[in-house]
Amino acid sequence: MMSLHVPILKTGTRDSICRSIFTHRLTFNLAVGWKGFQFDLPVWVTCGLCHLMERAFRTDVNSFIFSAGLIPPPYKAEDWKKSALERVTRKKYMPLDRLMATTKASGMSPDERPTIWSMVSFLVQTDRDKFGPYHRGLKARGAHTADWTKIQTELLQRIYGWTPAQFEAEWSKWVAAKWAR
């Protein structure tokens, strides 16, 4: 059984909260379901993109889908940037090679959500015209038994010109420059 955690922040905000949650879920269905639901994509890409899109409306609403009874950490808008920055500074985030192999949200701590949001945000803001081909490459080459690390390594190299280590280094510098204040 799944549950959806919907925070009620203050009177009169329900419509925009629903819009944020709807955007999150719609983004997930489009990202995973485009060209069919044959397999799960790496969760860092799908959830990172979902959070990026939902936060375009409100940064104080963050959707989390969990098993019944679990409640996510209550991040505020500034906490996501702060959390990503702290994790980068302390090198306390799940390495990209492990994220690349993870296709289930349960394979990643809820505390990684600001990290993956910042990673996808970095890819999109670096060159939004490259993120589409990256996603299409995942959908074209994926399968239930896919070697996701190999596929993503090849796509990062071909489309962005980075190895996973170079991606992490560039992303870390971007986070530090963007949110260190």
Task: Describe what this molecule looks like in 3D.
The structure is a single chain. 60% of the residues lie in helices and 3% in strands. The chain has 181 residues and is mainly alpha-helical. It has a two-stranded antiparallel sheet. Helix 3 packs across helix 8 and helix 5 (113-126) packs across helix 6. It is globular, with a radius of gyration of 16 Å. Residues 1-6 have low confidence and may be disordered.
Furnish the topology, listing elements before pairings.
Blueprint: E1 2-4, H1 14-33, H2 43-54, E2 65-67, H3 77-90, H4 96-101, H5 113-126, H6 128-141, H7 148-160, H8 164-179
Antiparallel strand pairs: 1-2
Helix pairs in contact: 1-2, 2-5, 3-5, 3-8, 5-6, 6-7
Series of secondary-structure elements, N-terminal to C-terminal: EHHEHHHHHH
Number of helices: 8
> Rough shape?
globular
| Percentage of residues assigned to helices | 55-70%
Radius of gyration, whole Å: 16 Å
Strand content: under 5%
| Uncertain parts | 1-6
Q: Major β-sheet, in short?
A: 2 strands, antiparallel
Count the E strands.
2
Amino-to-carboxy terminus distance:
42 Å
